[in-house]
Amino acid sequence: MKILYTATVLSHICQFHLPHMKMLRDMGWEVHAAAHDNLAVKNGLQLKNCDRFIEIPFDRSPKSPSNIKAYMRLKKLLAEERYDVILCNTPMGGIVTRLAAKKARKQGTKVIYMAHGFHFFKGSSKKSWLVFYPIEKHMARYCDLLITVNEEDYALAKERFGKLTKVAHIHGVGVDENRYHPVSEDEQLVMREAEGLTKDDFVILCTGELNENKNQSTLIRAAALLKDRIPNLKVLLAGNGPKEQELRELISELGLEDNVKLLGYRTDLERITPAVDLVVSCSLREGMPLNIIEAMLCKKPVVASHNRGHDELVEDGTTGYLVKPEDAEVIAQRINLLFCEKNSVYKLGSIGLEKAQQYTVSAVQKEVKAIIQMIIN
């Protein structure tokens, strides 16, 4: 059996799908990947568990002529290789792949599209519904199975697209519980020292591409409200992206050079997450955020913005706190509460660790394996 993974950029495949690709190879499958190779800017991120990689010039912009070239190259590849299954991801990668695979489907290839979070959802803008919903509805007919990674998207897809294709749900792509887990105080101290942190620092981690959706600016503003209330406050921002210079200027404007540190793109967050005090995410939109699951597996409380991905993972007051995404004052209040109440930190972290077990790699691998077996049979 032979499977092709596609996505607009290769970093997506490397970040989210390598454990499942390994599982398939262990089952005897031949695994290929096709995407635009952007790993040069991803600080050591590597493609593994893959028998062949094919460069395809996908572009995130629907207006880019590169996507026409991607369509032609992909169509030729599918004619040559005759895959049993194609698993496509990301908006443009998913659209171009499904269009290119029309003939392959007639010849028996099964096409799966994994939606990592629809751009339209409860509470999203009217523009999102007018632009993205019709596209997803139209494209649903060009796949044999649509996989969703959160419950809200699953319910929506079943209702709106269920007559056009099969719909399934999995608990995200999974986080490796062998990498992310609680560690001893001594291990935490070693991890902190490696990052230039001390035992007495109160450390907050925020992970994600530095872009408008991840909304790191709100956390920076919350830090400005906290720097005089929390001694040794340290905020770590892990990621790179188009907003980096703007965020650096905001940090300087608010006088937070000693409090907020940009770590750049990191592939070793398992050496940082277990050592922090809590994890914060202010994202406007999330499908199923790995950084929150990573925090919960490391027994860390979470302060997260209201959106469908966070709302599914975080129980307000039970595993962490949910807040409005752009309310820096309330975010600061919740962070300060966790700073002051050490017992709450332990309790929230313990319950979060238990809840996160259904989102581990080993749990999700079973779901993916069952889905692929179902679709090929």
What percent of residues adopt helix (DSSP H or I)?
40-55%
Shape: globular
Query: Count the strands?
Result: 13
Oligomeric state, counting identical vs distinct chains? single chain
N- and C-termini, Cα separation: 12 Å
In sequence order, what are the helices and strands, one letter per element? EHHEEHEHHEHEHEHEHEHEEHEHEHHH
Structural class, please?
A: alpha/beta
pLDDT < 50 runs, ≥5 residues: none
Biggest pleated-sheet summary: 7 strands, parallel
Q: What's the architecture of the largest domain in CATH terms?
A: 3-Layer(aba) Sandwich
Q: Can you characterise this structure?
A:
The protein has 377 residues and is an alpha/beta fold. The protein has two domains: 2-174 and 360-376, Rossmann fold, CATH 3.40.50.2000; 185-358, Rossmann fold (3-Layer(aba) Sandwich). It has helices spanning 10-16, 18-26, 66-81, 91-100, 102-106, 126-139, 151-161, 185-194, 216-226, 244-253, 290-297, 308-313, 328-340, 342-355, 361-376; strands spanning 2-9, 30-36, 52-55, 85-89, 110-115, 145-148, 166-169, 202-207, 233-238, 260-264, 278-281, 302-305, 320-323. Helix 3 (66-81) crosses helix 4 (91-100). The longest helix has 16 residues, at 66-81. The protein is globular and about 65 Å long.
Descriptive labels:
single chain, about 375 residues, alpha/beta, Rossmann fold, 2 domains, seven-stranded parallel β-sheet, six-stranded parallel β-sheet, 15 helices, 13 strands, about 40% helix, about 20% strand, globular
